[in-house]
Design brief:
By secondary structure, the chain is an alpha/beta fold. It has 2 domains: 11-299, Acetylglutamate kinase-like (Carbamate kinase, 3-Layer(aba) Sandwich), CATH 3.40.1160.10; 308-400, Archaeosine Trna-guanine Transglycosylase, Chain: A, domain 4. 37% of the residues lie in helices and 17% in strands. The longest helix has 25 residues, at 102-126. Glutamic acid (GLU) binds next to helix 4 and strand 4.
């Protein structure tokens, strides 16, 4: 694995010079996030690969393939997360409006994904590159074995210099089990392959301090820490008509990517040669930097669980000890057990107000946990007839959630 680099620490001087030749039109100083990155995840939204209800924009797909081939030549591995299946399916089926029924959305995605795969296949082949289609579901990432499988398939493809083209497998997922938007999927993939950076391309210039359509004072955020809580307020919540993710999902995706040490760029996909210019060191869009902390791979996987099978509520004392860090969760601190889970499943831990404070691997199944909640360690064996471990969740198998925004 390539460890994520922290580019500002050792950025070569030549890169800074090279960057000046490709400086962005607004003359901003080059940022150093993409130039030194070895492995990138690039997410392109529906509005960048399809043409306002007219289906796939083949010229645009050709431009993405061209730029990604260029990144390859610079020695970078690239994973592409591309939306557009539903939009293309709507066009192929002659539907003017996005359907609201799930089976129809699934049908549109199935039809459209064929067109998307075809478009990327021809565009990459024309540039002497292979690409590979990978359709992921939340379950592929929520089960540890499938997660590791998906990871090794992606790493193998990258080792073969193939460009994986990823979308959510919309045809087999329902709302309850959906990742839901490709910004989040892009972040999950960034964590999965331990990419150095995530580039989210959209139809806006980046993240603004306020909604630029409503506030004339709004300015582009050039650089911020991905975990800065102020970003969530700035991102508002609006989405576009055709794709799924608004600016808020992009900010949350950046925060998620930062957990594995990856920086995120949110930039306009309409900027000419945006990927190559970012790689040359140009400052385009918003750069949301990861802090220094990086979760260990297993904890990362637990943190990335979008949905959990069960949850336990703990009393105020246990909640405090967990929040302070370093404590395991003992059955005695548990007041309620919800959901059905097995030993080894990831469950959420809620404080008495229902706020999630941690998630982790349960040592006991839900039925057992119900029996031993509130019980001191000395009584577990008498209640169950056996004792797996004294803890319900051991601290090594637990990851604390960030403070809610
Ligand atoms: N997976 C959906 C599609 O390909 C798009 C989801 C999104 O735009 O975030 O049409």
């Amino acid at each position: 694995m390539t460890p994520p680099t922290h580019p500002e620490d050792h950025r070569p001087a030549e890169r800074a010079e090279a960057a000046t030749s490709a400086r962005s039109a607004d003359g901003a100083s080059p940022n150093s996030v993409i130039a030194p990155a070895r492995r990138l995840v690039v997410k392109v939204g529906s509005s960048l690969v399809t043409d306002e209800g007219r289906g796939i924009d083949h010229a645009a797909v050709a431009r993405w393939a061209e730029q990604i081939a260029g990144l390859h030549e610079l020695g970078k591995d690239v994973v592409l997360v591309s939306s557009g299946a539903i939009a293309e399916g709507m066009k192929r089926l002659g539907w003017p409006r996005r359907p609201s029924e799930i089976p129809e959305l699934q049908a549109a995605a199935a039809v459209g994904q064929m067109g998307l795969a075809q478009a990327y296949e021809s565009a990459f082949t024309a540039r002497g590159r292979h690409c590979a289609q990978i359709l992921l579901t939340h379950a592929d990432l929520a089960n540890r074995r499938r997660y590791l499988n998906a990871r090794s398939a992606l790493l193998t493809l990258m080792g073969l210099r193939v460009v994986p083209v990823i979308n959510e497998n919309d045809t087999v997922v329902t709302d309850e089990i959906k990742v839901g938007d490709n910004d989040t999927l892009g972040a999950l993939v960034t964590n999965l392959v331990e990419a150095d950076a995530l580039i989210i391309l959209t139809d806006q210039q980046g993240l603004f301090s306020a909604d630029p359509r409503k506030d004339p004072q709004a300015h582009l955020i050039r650089e911020a820490r991905a975990d800065d809580p102020a970003l969530v307020a700035m991102a508002g919540g609006a989405g576009s008509a055709i794709g799924k993710g608004g600016m808020l999902t992009k900010v949350l995706a950046a925060r998620r990517a930062a957990q594995s040490g990856a920086h995120t760029i949110i930039a306009s996909g309409r900027e000419p040669d945006v990927l190559l210019r970012l790689a040359a060191g140009d400052a385009i869009g918003s750069c949301l930097r990861a802090g220094s902390g990086k979760l260990a791979a297993r904890k990362q996987w637990m943190a990335d669980h979008l949905k959990v099978l069960g949850r336990v509520t703990v009393d105020a004392g246990a909640a405090r000890r967990l929040r302070e860090g370093g404590a395991s969760l003992l059955p005695v601190g548990v007041t309620e057990v919800g959901g059905e889970f097995e030993r080894g499943d990831v469950i959420a831990v809620l404080d008495p107000d229902g706020v999630e404070i941690a998630r982790g691997l349960s040592n006991y199944a839900a039925a057992e946990a119900r029996l031993i909640r509130r019980a001191p360690t000395s009584q577990i064996e008498a209640i169950l007839g056996f004792i797996e471990q004294p803890e319900l969740i051991h601290r090594d198998n637990m990851v604390l959630r960030q403070a809610p925004a």
